Amino acid sequence: MRRFIYKAKDSKTGKTVKGVIQAENERAAGKLLIDQGYVPDSVEEEDTSGLLAKLSSKVSNKDKIIFTRQFATLIGAGLPLSNALRTLVEQTESKPMRKVIEDILSQVEAGKSLMEACSKHPDVFDQVYLSLIQAGEASGTLDLALKRLADQKEKDENMMSKIRGAMTYPAIVLFVIVAVVVFMMVMVVPQVENLYADLGQELPVATQILVSISNFVVNEWYVVLIILVLFGWLFMQFRKTDTGKRWAAIVKLNVPIFNKLFLRLYNARFARTMQMLLSTGVALLDSMRMSAEATNNVVYEEQITLAMEKVQGGKPLSEALRDKKYMMPLVPQMSSIGEESGKIDEMLGKAAQVYEDELDEQIAAISTMIEPILMVIMALLIGGIVLAVLFPIYSLVNSVG
Predict the structure, then answer these.
(1) 291 with 273: CB under 8 angstroms?
(2) What is the tally of helices (H) and strands (E) in the chain?
(3) pTM of the full structure
(4) 260/268 Cα distance (integer angstroms)
(5) What confidence tens digit (pLDDT) does each residue in 381-398 have?
């Protein structure tokens, strides 16, 4: 099937519409438009080589949240699926998201289900998203499923935004530290070397080390730049491998100060996703698998996989989750209460809320804690360089005196 960009008029309202439609050829595309009640003005084939993958990677979380929220509103207002998607195409400002919606619209109009159409964009719509859409279509509650998705993605985006915000100040301080160190190595240290050279004196060992580093940075700056770029590229490639993903996951769960923050984040994300999937009617094992994937941490996901094996063996969810290394106590405890009351999704939602509230408090605490730590690091680095520079000058003054 080929994709065609069309411009047509609605035969009933006379309104001009634009979009994308899939067909075997241009004539078939025009016939499809006529069958749908449109009078084609222009139908042109679109070059789709590698297009979907490129577009999908550019769609932001904000764009997805806006699309999902607006889609839920339109479906809830009673608009047919195609009309709702066409309205979204017209009012969506993000070009990448608009292209994705146009493709979904063309596939829906070609007879595909919404879930099948969305599944063509795996970089935009994850498995949780697709499962909720499928459940919503099957039960006739698509608007509620979309609303739950929008709520979930907003909560997750808010949490990540707070974490990024907490990291902004430390990043700025670290940049200042690096900038001051580079300035002193490039501008100050060479002056000390010149002073000693003019007086025919030998540099102390510590100062000589600094001078050697300074000379290398100044004279071989392009080598330093190449090394930094190469290291950055190799590190990014390593992060994409299975070993790199596992290494990053282990670091996040065990690094001092931040490990408890990430632990609460993953537990909240798992519990919140479980609540959303179970409340929509997704099977327990499928909910566990997709919720584990949604945490975006392979080590945590492995823990849930072990719990799934116990559930498959007949164990209740609460018992399967208990005693897992990275599973915080409240999740299995609330699961147990939910199993007894028949409201396991509701109880998991309450557990998620507790961890989300604790996460807010911990982010504020970490921000306060990091400030003095960074000040100490700055003092040690810059103080060490200053001493290495001032000590030989002080020695020279004494020797001359």
Answers:
(1) yes
(2) 18, 3
(3) 0.68
(4) 12
(5) 777 777 766 666 666 666
